[in-house]
Automatic annotation (TrEMBL), chain A:
Belongs to the Rab GDI family. GO terms for cellular component: cytoplasm. InterPro entries: FAD/NAD-bd_sf (IPR036188), GDP_dissociation_inhibitor (IPR018203), RabGDI (IPR000806). It comes from Cyberlindnera jadinii (strain ATCC 18201 / CBS 1600 / BCRC 20928 / JCM 3617 / NBRC 0987 / NRRL Y-1542) (Torula yeast). GO terms for molecular function: Rab GDP-dissociation inhibitor activity. One of its GO terms (biological process) is small GTPase-mediated signal transduction. Pfam families: GDI. This is Rab GDP dissociation inhibitor. Gene3D superfamilies: FAD/NAD(P)-binding domain, Guanine Nucleotide Dissociation Inhibitor, domain 1, Guanine Nucleotide Dissociation Inhibitor, domain 2.
TrEMBL record, chain B:
It comes from the Eukaryota. GO terms for biological process: protein transport; vesicle organization; vesicle-mediated transport. Pfam families: Ras (PF00071). Belongs to the small GTPase superfamily. Rab family. The lineage of its organism: Eukaryota, Fungi, Dikarya, Ascomycota, Saccharomycotina. Keywords: Cell membrane, GTP-binding, Lipoprotein, Membrane, Nucleotide-binding, Prenylation, Protein transport, Transport. InterPro entries: P-loop_NTPase, Small_GTP-bd, Small_GTPase. GO terms for molecular function: GTP binding; GTPase activity. It is a lipid-anchor. CDD domains: Rab5_related (cd01860). Coiled coil: none annotated. This is Ras-domain-containing protein. GO terms for cellular component: endosome; plasma membrane.
């Protein structure tokens, strides 16, 4: 194998694979390594066998669940916003050719003891059972203001300053009630706690716009999901990288990371078929597990995966997101439930995957913290539930000193916007320029079209 | 001829290539798609996949979407998505390299384990132009292919001998009717389609 590369990438999670693909397309010589024998790291989708091995080692797979290979269970539950940045990257890089997407049927928020559809259009707002008659008018006014807001047309601002006025102040300008604020902030802007209320309103407004535009794009819900699970995404971007010359090595252990006297990254030592190789590159991009001494963690996320026969949805939806806001459950952070099934080819006919996630609060056992979600799902016994606690790691330094660029752990949010933020941020630090997406020309050769 | 047979029929299939590095996978495809050969071919940069159509009979056209490994097989790092939903596979070995047939056999095992049940697999011994350096007996490979129920060919990407026949035989064996039928099922979302909604219509 070659000894020198432009960039070494460690770990095949989504963040690493997108960066690997983008850099290869630019002509960088990329070596991409994973210690595991499958793609995806934390963003992999596992079959039933792998799921048991990870969460219930030594336990026999429940035969009544069907064939192992019919399952593609995500470790990190997330959906794509139809108009979000990941969709944008997929379209520009043509990775859409390797991954098929279907809509998620519904976006719900738990209120008054049941899941209700999140209104995202003026029509839905005025017909929603979530809100009283007078409030409907106020919500309509708010959504109209958001839709008509133009940065360079002060008349559309209605006297509000997005970089100064807090989100709460904006809500109050429209006279919105607490309950309405709660679902705009949590079910549309997708904040998982209330800290945003006291921040300048720009980000919240942008998030509401993203939500509405995403709903408008295909209808039903703002979310898309790849057939066969999220694990297809890192694989798709790895193929992009390989097609543009990237070299991939799975099941490869990094024996040692090499630094110079100043602590700057030089390369890695790895063993290949029992032989030691030193591979050099001026920069390394890695997920947090490859540099445990260079990352820290402030929060933990609990994620539970359950295989269920029935979904708590009334109108025949086969997939959905349900948000249980902190207000409803007495917690600080929201609980997200992602529901997917055979329609998205992640489970056999008649079986569904329900993934519940939230930030851990206090010392109560995780299944108690998520009690309201299990109640909603009708889960009483946990023999078909797999629980995992994960630290949310972030790099301590930005890589400018040691040329080690470390990604963040996948957070508790229900979509990929924070992942693509991280991708763009690392891209900027690695290349020194902001990411500019240009549509790739097709390399396809068509003989007799 | 019945009336239904006279309607033009079109079906598209995904075909994947497998085999050890340097056995000539890409060369076989380039011979098939472009009818050309390059002694010093570098792996194809930037091609998602190649396509080629075959006229099966006067009413029936088959389009192959041919996926190359893009080198990901080299360190045993081929992503499973590669053979997901593949309809056909051409597993290539080099008749002058005995070990390449063993590798081909392990790919075939992997395909039988992971891929579609009705996957059509062809085993192809390449470099027939190097007959004098042959190390793999035709009979041995043929016997293995028959036992496993595979199509079998010996070919030369360099001269073109036998290459078209691989794809022709695969086309004849593919389940045409069910593919045409499955086309009419609800399709997935097309992300490449530009959004029909303009920004100002959002939220209103």
């Amino acid at each position: 194998m070659d000894e020198e590369y432009d960039v070494i990438v460690l770990g095949t999670g989504l963040t690493e694979c997108v960066l690997s693909g983008l850099l290869s397309v630019e002509g960088k010589k990329v070596l991409h390594i994973d210690r595991q024998d499958y793609y995806g790291g934390e963003s992999a989708s596992l079959n039933l066998q792998q799921l048991y091995e990870k969460f219930k080692p030594g336990k026999e797979v429940d035969a009544s669940l069907g064939r192992s290979r019919d399952y593609c269970v995500d470790l990190i539950p997330k959906f794509l916003m139809a108009n979000g940045e990941l969709t944008n990257i997929l379209v520009h890089t043509n990775v859409t050719r390797y991954v098929e997407f279907k809509q998620i049927d519904g976006s719900f928020v738990f209120r008054y003891g049941k899941p209700s559809k999140v209104p995202a259009t003026e029509y839905e707002a005025v017909t929603s059972s979530l809100i009283g008659l007078f409030e409907k008018r106020r919500l309509k006014n708010f959504l109209q203001w958001v839709a008509n807001y133009k940065e360079d047309d002060v008349a559309t601002h209605k006297g509000l300053k997005l970089d100064i006025d807090t989100t709460d102040a904006v809500y109050n300008k429209f006279g919105l009630e607490e309950g309405t604020k709660n679902f705009i902030g949590h079910a549309m802007a997708l904040y998982d706690n209330d800290e945003y209320l006291q921040q300048p309103a720009r980000e919240a407004v942008e998030r509401v716009v993203l939500y509405c535009q995403s709903v408008a794009r295909y209808g039903k819900s703002p979310y898309l999901y790849p057939l066969y699970g999220l694990g297809e995404l890192p694989q798709g971007f790895s193929r992009l990288s390989a097609i543009y010359g990237g070299t991939f090595m799975l099941s490869t252990k990094v024996e040692q990371v090499l630094y110079d006297e100043a602590g700057v990254f030089q390369g890695v030592k790895l063993s290949l078929d029992g032989e030691e190789h030193v591979v050099k590159a001026p920069q390394v991009i890695a997920d947090p597990t490859y540099f445990p001494e260079k990352v820290s963690s402030s929060e933990k996320v609990i994620r539970t995966i359950s295989i269920v026969d029935q979904l708590p949805l009334k109108n025949g939806e086969t997939s959905a997101q349900i948000i249980l806001t902190g207000k409803e459950t007495g917690r600080k952070n929201d609980i997200y439930i992602a529901l997917i099934g055979s329609e998205h080819k992640v489970a056999p006919q008649g079986k569904n995957i329900a993934i519940v996630s939230s930030i851990i609060e206090g010392d109560k056992p995780p299944h108690i913290q998520l009690e309201s979600a299990f109640k909603l799902l009708g889960i009483k016994a946990f023999d078909r539930t797999f629980m995992g606690l994960s630290d949310l790691f972030a790099p301590i330094e930005d890589g400018s000193k040691d040329n080690v660029y470390i990604s963040k752990s996948y957070d508790a949010t229900s979509h990929f916007e924070s992942v693509t933020e991280d991708v763009k941020d690392i891209y900027f630090r690695v290349t020194g320029k902001p990411l500019k997406l240009t549509k790739l020309e097709e390399g396809e050769f068509n003989a007799q079209a | 001829m019945s009336a239904t047979q006279q309607e033009p029929r079109f079906a598209q299939f995904k075909l994947v290539l497998l085999g050890e590095s340097a056995v000539g996978k890409s060369s076989i495809v380039h011979r098939f798609v472009k009818d050309s050969f390059d002694d010093f071919r570098e792996s194809t940069i930037g091609a998602a996949f190649l396509t080629q159509t075959i006229q099966l009979d006067e009413n029936t056209t088959i389009k192959f979407e041919i996926w190359d490994t893009a080198g990901q097989e080299r360190y045993k790092s081929l992503a499973p998505m590669y053979y997901r939903n593949a309809n056909a596979a051409v597993v290539v070995y080099d008749i002058t390299q005995e070990a390449s047939l063993e590798r081909a056999k392990s790919w075939i095992k992997e395909l039988q384990r992971q891929a579609n049940q009705d996957l059509v697999i062809a085993l192809a011994g390449n470099k027939l132009d190097l007959e004098s350096e042959r190390k793999v007996a035709k009979e041995a490979a043929q016997a293995y292919a028959t036992e496993e129920g595979l199509l079998f060919f010996e070919v030369s990407a360099k001269t073109g001998q036998g290459v078209k026949e691989i794809f022709q035989s695969i086309a004849e064996k593919l389940p045409l009717e069910s593919q045409i039928k499955s086309k009419s099922q609800p399709k997935s979302v097309n992300l490449q389609r530009p959004s029909t909604n303009n920004q100002s219509s959002c939220c209103s």
